[in-house]
């Protein structure tokens, strides 16, 4: 059954994660009562002072799961029921901010994250046919729908974004209810044509965004192996005739990991398990491919 949207983008701060509460707790303030998003003005801060404090926040701040919004899980589930793809789309110009959000979104929702430097880039880079944005900033939502007539936008309701016609706001009573009895769809890649298979093979959002640190370790192992087995002055390549005992190596590194996570060369045993497993999978696919 086809879904209403190709992609739903969910804002992070104010929709899935309570930024205002997190910020006030971090700096030891009570949350001010205000119907403006610029709550920091009630704390005596100028926009410049607030931005300076914001830019200096560490990754630890951004990946605190205690500030996940109460309805965040329900919203993500609704989005998955109504779109082929669901991502977080958030303003995160600093690396620690972006990385912290990626870790939290992946760990608790299984979502990939697209980070932009400013709200205008949400509109410029992501407003496309078949895309829906759910954001707590009305101006961003309105511009998102104006940029592409076939894109959609809903404002996540909050006390600081009132004033639009009610049709602009996300309302559980108006959106399609979740059908808990509906059978979950399955994917059969073998029956897909090449174009659809490529579209549903998310190399970035389904692999690199899930395991960035682990894959970096695997890549480093490839370089270590190149220096060990080949002429390091040559471009890196995989000499498959050397050290090809994948199954034995996997078991050996798993056993050694239980004694000491690090191998004698300083590399993590688990990273070598991952490298060997990928090597074995690659060879198996090549040997059994019908194409």
Offer a concise description of the structure.
The protein is of the alpha/beta class and 291 residues long.
Given as residue ranges, the uncertain stretches (5+ residues, pLDDT < 50) are 178-182
**N-to-C CA distance:** 29 Å
Bin the strand percentage.
5-15%
Question: Structural class of the helices, strands and pairings?
Answer: alpha/beta
Biggest beta-sheet profile: 5 strands, parallel
Radius of gyration: 23 Å
What's the count of strands? 5
Mean pLDDT: 91
Major β-sheet strand ordering = 3-2-1-4-5
Assign a percent range to the helix content: 40-55%
Order of helices and strands: EHHHHEHEHEHEHHHHH
Shape: globular
Number of helices: 12
Give a written overview of the molecule:
The longest helix is centred in the C-terminal third of the chain and has 20 residues, at 269-288. Helix content is 43%, strand content 10%. The protein has helices at 19-26, 47-55, 59-62, 72-82, 95-109, 119-126, 138-147, 194-199, 204-208, 212-229, 246-257, 269-288; strands at 5-10, 83-91, 112-116, 131-135, 152-155. α10 crosses α12 (269-288). Strands 3-2-1-4-5 form a 5-stranded parallel β-sheet, sandwiched between helices. The protein is built from 12 helices and 5 strands. It is an alpha/beta fold and 291 residues long.
């Amino acid at each position: 059954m086809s879904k209403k949207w190709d992609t739903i983008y969910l804002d992070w701060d104010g929709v899935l994660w309570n930024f205002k509460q997190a910020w006030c707790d971090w700096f030891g303030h009570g949350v001010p009562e205000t119907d403006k998003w610029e709550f920091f003005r009630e704390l005596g801060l100028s926009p410049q002072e607030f931005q300076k404090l914001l830019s200096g926040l560490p990754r630890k701040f951004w990946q605190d799961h205690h500030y996940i919004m109460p309805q965040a899980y329900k919203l993500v589930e609704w989005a998955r029921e109504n779109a082929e793809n669901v991502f977080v789309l958030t303003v995160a110009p600093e690396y620690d901010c972006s990385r912290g959000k990626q870790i939290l979104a992946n760990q608790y929702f299984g979502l990939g994250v697209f980070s932009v430097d400013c709200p205008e880039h949400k509109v410029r880079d992501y407003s496309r046919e078949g895309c829906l944005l759910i954001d707590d900033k009305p101006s961003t939502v309105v511009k998102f729908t104006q940029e592409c007539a076939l894109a959609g936008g809903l404002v996540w309701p909050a006390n600081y974004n009132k004033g639009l016609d009610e049709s602009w706001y996300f309302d559980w009573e108006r959106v399609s209810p979740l059908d808990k009895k509906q059978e979950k769809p399955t994917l059969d890649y073998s029956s897909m044509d090449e174009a659809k298979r490529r579209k549903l093979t998310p190399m970035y959002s389904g692999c690199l965004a899930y395991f960035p640190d682990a894959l970096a370790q695997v890549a480093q192992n490839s370089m270590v192996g190149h220096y060990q087995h080949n002429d390091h002055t040559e471009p890196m390549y995989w000499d498959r005739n050397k050290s090809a005992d994948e199954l034995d190596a996997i078991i050996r590194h798993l056993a050694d990991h239980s004694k000491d996570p690090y191998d004698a060369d300083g590399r993590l045993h688990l990273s070598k398990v991952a490298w060997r497993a990928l090597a074995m999978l690659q060879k198996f696919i090549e040997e059994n491919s019908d194409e």
